[in-house]
Amino acid sequence: MEVNKGYFAGKTAVVTGAASGIGLALIEELLASGAEKVVVADFNQANLEKHVNRLKGQYPGKVKGILCNVTLEENVRAMIAGAVEFFGGKIDLLINNAGAGFFGFFVAPSDPGGLEKLGFKEQTNADWEKAFALNFYGALYGCRAAIPLMRKQGGGQIVNIISGIAFYHMPYQSMYAATKAALNAMTLSLRAEFWDDRIKISSATPGTTATAIWEGKTMPEGIQTPQQSARRILAGAANNRRVIYGDDADESGSKNCFDVDCQEIPDQYLLNIARQRRNGKMAV
Ligand SMILES: NC(=O)c1ccc[n+]([C@@H]2O[C@H](COP(=O)([O-])OP(=O)(O)OC[C@H]3O[C@@H](n4cnc5c(N)ncnc54)[C@H](O)[C@@H]3O)[C@@H](O)[C@H]2O)c1
Question: What's the CATH superfamily of 5-278?
C-alpha cells in the first residue's frame, strides 16, 4: 500500500512507543513522505537514542527524541509541550501507539496444558491496572494534552492504535481485548465530539505484525512487516477513515463480530484459537 505522500508533506507529527516496531515504522514512513518534523516518544532510553541518532543523520533538523512514560500524565503533557516547541508552535498529527499485548490466564487453569510453554501466568488486579494504564490511559492522556492545542490552532489529527482484538476478542488475552475495546470506544466518541473543531480522530488496527510485542513467542503464520502496517495506517489516516484496518483479516473480522445473524462465525473461530493456544500454539 502506498502512502499518500502529499498529505503528510510539511506536517509535524508525534508518535508514542516509537522506538520499536510499528511506531518506529510510522516515524520512518512519515519522514519518507516529507513530514516537516517528527517527535519519537518512548520510555525505552536505549532504543530511543539508537534510532533517533540514526534518523537524525538521515533527516538533519527534523527529528527529536523525547523520553516519555505514557502511563504518567505529567510525562505526556511535558512531552507534547516539548514537541510543540520543537515544531515551532504547531502539532498536526499525534499517533498514540505505545502499548503491549498482555497474554495470560484470567484465573489459573486446572491444567495449563501447553500454555505454560507460552509463558502465560494468572493475571492479578495489579496486572489489569498496568494494562489499562498503558493501553488505555496512555492514549487518553495524549488526547487530553493535544486536543486543546489542536482546537486553538484550528485543527489537527489523532490516530489511536487499537487492535483487531477490539473486534475479535482472543482467549487468553482478556486484558488486552478489554483495554483495546475501551480505547476504540473512547476514540470514536471523541471523533464526533471534536469533528466540528476540525480535529480528525480515528482508531487504527495495525494487523498482525512482526514486532517485539510477541515477546519471543513463535509468531503467527502470514504475519506482516511493521512497514506494511505503517503504510496502511497512514493511508487510512490520509483518508480520515473512522476505523483503519491494518490487514484484511481485521477488516473482515470487524464485519461479522457483532452481527446477530452470524454469531457462530466468531464463536467457532475463537474456540478454535483457545484450543490451539491450550496446545501451546500461538494462533491468532
Ligand atoms: N504487533 C502486532 O501484531 C499488533 C497487533 C495489534 C495491535 N498492536 C498494537 O500496536 C502498538 C505498537 O506495538 P508493536 O507491535 O510495535 O510493539 P513493540 O513492543 O515493538 O513496540 C511498543 C513500543 O511501546 C513502548 N512502550 C511500552 N510501554 C511504554 C510506556 N509506558 N511509555 C512509552 N512507551 C512505551 C516500548 O518501549 C516499545 O518501543 C501497540 O499499541 C500494540 O498493542 C500490535
Answer: NAD(P)-binding Rossmann-like Domain (3.40.50.720)
